[in-house]
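Why this split exists: single-chain examples teach little about how molecules sit against one another. For that reason, every record in the complexes split bundles all components of an assembly together and asks for one structure covering all of them. Below is a record exactly as it appears in the raw files.
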Amino acid sequence: MEIGPIWRAMSRNKTSYLLIAMQIAVTMAIMVNAFSIIQERSRMMARPSGVDEDNIFYLSSIGFLPEFDGRSASEEDLDALRRFPGVANAIMTNTVPLQGGGWSQGLRTEPGEEIESIGVAVYFVDEHGIDTFDVNLTQGRNFAPTEIMMFDPDANGARWPDKIIITQAMAEALFPDSPNDAIGRTVYIEDDLPITIIGVLQRMQAAWKEWSGVERAMLVPMKRKQNSFRYVIRAEPGYRDELMPQIEKMLAEKNTGRIIRGMTTMTETRERSYLEDSAMIKLLVFIVGVLTAITGLGIVGLASFSVARRSKQIGVRRALGATRPAILRYFMLENFLISSVGVVGGALLAVGLNVWMVHAFDLTPIAWYVIPTAMLILWLVGQLAVFGPARRATLVSPAVATRAV
Amino acid sequence: MISYYAKLGLLSIRQNPVLSALMVAAIATGIGACMTIVNIDYVMSGNPIPHRSSLLYHVQLDSWDPYEAAEEPNEPPDQVTYLDGTALLKAGKARRQVLSYRTGRVIQPDGDGQLPFQVSSRSTSADFFSMFDVPFLYGSAWDKAADDSAAYVVVLGREVNEQLFGGQDPVGRNVVMNGDTYRVTGVLDNWQPTPKFYDVSNQSFGEVEEVYFPLSVSIAEELSSSGNTNCWKPVPETTWQAFLNSECVWMQLWVELHGETERSDYLAYLDAYVESQKAIGRFPRPLNNRLYNVMEWMQNQEVVESDVKVLLGLAVLFLVVCLLNTIGLLLAKIMRRAGDIGLRRALGASRNAVFAQYIVEAGLIGIVGGVAGIGMTMLGLQGIRILYGEFDFIDRLVHLDWIMMSTAIILAIVSALAAALYPTWRACGIHPASQLKSL
């Protein structure tokens, strides 16, 4: 192989090659870290919320007249909603997964404020909650209609019912040793009020996507007396979009003491919730794409110059018997050597940049295979970029050598 | 001479149109990417109230759980309880103090055909407007007497006034909200601090509230916050009074202090206040009160998204790659003409003359790239606007002010020179003899 001579020829013109190698190195550092961020975000966005996102929509009803009676209005509304053609089921609740606003509470396995509690997202539902969200009850049972607690803040009675349904992730957090027998066990809310777990859901996310406990949620069988609340409605498949305006109109006309606002589908909620992440992914893909193109084109440009400058040398080599493939190999190999220096430097730079970003921004460290993958990509980009100019080099005729001397 | 060099430079650029375009594009893209993110970071980390930011202090008291900090490692909660907020407001130990929280109301227009609509509102005291230097279009804030007597008065935002009174002066007229009649005392002029420093717990870059009315009224109306409410201790009863007496934090307290002495005096007062509360069994944690001025508080709350910081780092590296690319290409281009340069030097051109010739050529590429870079910045900001279009505050983040415009120009010139200098310097170093030999 000609590595020796190539290397010596390159060292006579260090700066140009060093510039390209540096460019490749920095490109690689950006590529690796961008890819790592993209991976992290995509993983986050791929988490299912557990509810039937395709068919659920929700809206807020805001009572504003002093005489508005939230309790009777919600009973009438729910009755009308559940009868509405195309509606699979509906409930009154406080929030939906990914929505961004919600209620959280702590649960303990032993009473007492000194025991560490585990945060959990609260969904207030009635016996239709599981069916409306279309979440999967894997163990235990649903609430019976008689178990739904009617809560009135002015009455100053009990604050929490005595039964809840929790998600599997919450069961695992509460009972790390025996997460699969959560049914029938007692936990404590607000320090010392006992509650019995009667069911476990496979999955239902909290309203805050960036919360570390996003998979921990519980259903609380309670209807709160208040004047502003949210209805969550699950449409029969295919009916969602035509139902939304009909239902808005129906509710607005039913009672003039309130306004209907924030009619939103779960699909929109997911998009909005992950907007920053999907935008970040697009930006990074764009940055890496443009950067790779610029580096590739830079290699093309430099190789063209270098071929033009050395046309005489090439002629001499051809005249002395070098074949066309040998000339091609020379330039391809030269580029491979530069790229190698670049990607090795790039690997170090990428790791350095990643260590800093992990430290400064709590990002996840890069996976081991990202660096070799990026190396391969950049080697390939380099070879592709140099191929054109190198092919042109093979077309230099031996006669060039004789003419110019 | 310069015009002659410029002509030569143009000729040389025309000889290599593709490569020259590539160099210009590389500089332009690098500057465009860099300035787009720098601009976003600049707006996000801007000072929302420059002339008063060092006089306004956000109050934090550590009233939290004895077994767990409000935020790790040992941060006090970012809002205050009703008990503490009203006690400090009443004590009035600072030059001015403002306690407020975000609520929502439904306005019922009296004209036919106009439907009731929901507005965001802020319950606060009269000093809010003077302390935060809020501009008025009509009328003024309510007075202290209105605060004390819980009078139903309201200050409208400009848009709500447009909607209700067609933009006419409404001072003294009535607005019905949630069944209650409020008298209008004033209308705000355009006002949008960025970030919305006085309440960053919701959306740091959200819109300011649409209407304002006395805190005393919202407490009497039992209006809970539409922002965050955090409790570490169970509220023993479900009544409004029990909530007011609870350890839940849900209000923002700001004070105005002039100078370091007033700041340390007020901090000492806060410590004394907490000690007095400890005596009656509250504040189980060790003393941990904080007074941050506006910019310190913005920093503490990390209002600049970490995504922006990550992108900023990557964008700077991006510019580095683009510059390396241009330097490499320019160098190759100039070295290819080593023969010409050698000849010129042999014929008597000085190094300075060679330098001048090539800095003009390289500079030309740099300047064209820089100007195109400003265009790319605008394009980049438009791209960001489309990408984040769902956020209503995005328009404010993509606005390019004259400071950023000049920064872009300076960055373009510096980048162009940085890219041009090294290759030109190399050109000057070419020895006439070494080149003439090979001719």
